[in-house]
Amino acid sequence: MIDRNQFEEALSGKLLSHTDRLDEITIEIAAAGLLESLAKLKEMGFEMLIDLCGVDYLTYGNGGREGRRFAVVYHLLAVSRNERLRVRVYAEDDDFPVVESCIPVWNCANWYEREAFDLYGIMFSGHPDLRRLLTDYGFVGNPFRKDFPLSGNVEMRYDEHLGRVVYQPVTVVPRENTPRIVREENYGEA
């Protein structure tokens, strides 16, 4: 298993933290020079990008957390050694989070980065086709952000008479759910 000293040597001062918990290593690296750091990790044997996801730390730890709000987390695998590595990098600006695209290192990151862009609003500089992946093109906002409203103001539906999609104010009828009571003597009977 690769130790902290090997990461520090390979990443040449860009390693910010190293945690080894439950036989899984998590490292945090600087956003500046991210692409070079990820390429070094690939040279160290972490040849497979398993996943890439965005994280919003706005209310992490009940809001008592200090530091940057948005991070991108890379899950890497060294197939020959069966070692996993989690790499976290924080976007420098919370108002407009931008991180370098890692597509030059792992081409499979294309859709992962588009998903993080769509759901968290994290921009990936150098991405060849950064556009929405899961939400509609007219969708406003980023639904996985912690400050995204749980109830919207506008809904869309297809109107057969007009032959197109129309937007209208949300029509939510408040209702109260009453749970079904299960009594032991009647349990399992139809």
Question: What does the radius of gyration come to?
Answer: 22 Å
| Average pLDDT taken over every residue | 88
**Share of helix, binned:** 10-25%
Counting structural domains, the number is 1
CATH superfamily: NADH:ubiquinone oxidoreductase Nqo5 subunit
Class, according to the CATH hierarchy?
Alpha Beta
Number of helical segments with 4 or more residues: 3
Give unreliable regions as ranges: none
Fraction of residues in β-strands: 25-35%
Termini Cα gap: 57 Å
- Oligomeric form: single chain
In CATH, the topology is named Beta Polymerase, domain 2
The coarse overall form would be extended
Q: Walk across the major sheet and give the strand order.
A: 1-2-5-4-3
Tell how many strands the DSSP assignment holds. Answer: 9
Taken in chain order, the helices and strands follow as: HEEHEEEEHEEE
Structural class: alpha/beta
Structure write-up:
The chain is an alpha/beta fold and 190 residues long. Helices cover 16% and strands 30% of the residues. The chain contains 3 helices and 9 strands, in the order αββαββββαβββ. The strands form 3 sheets. A 5-stranded mixed beta sheet has the order 1-2-5-4-3. Strands 6-7 form a two-stranded parallel sheet. The protein has a two-stranded antiparallel sheet with strand order 8-9. The longest helix is centred in the middle third of the chain and has 12 residues. The chain starts with a helix and ends in a 21-residue tail after the last strand.
Topology:
Blueprint: H1 4-11, E1 15-21, E2 24-29, H2 34-43, E3 48-56, E4 70-78, E5 83-90, E6 98-100, H3 109-120, E7 123-125, E8 154-159, E9 164-169
Parallel strand pairs: 2-5, 6-7
Antiparallel strand pairs: 1-2, 3-4, 4-5, 8-9
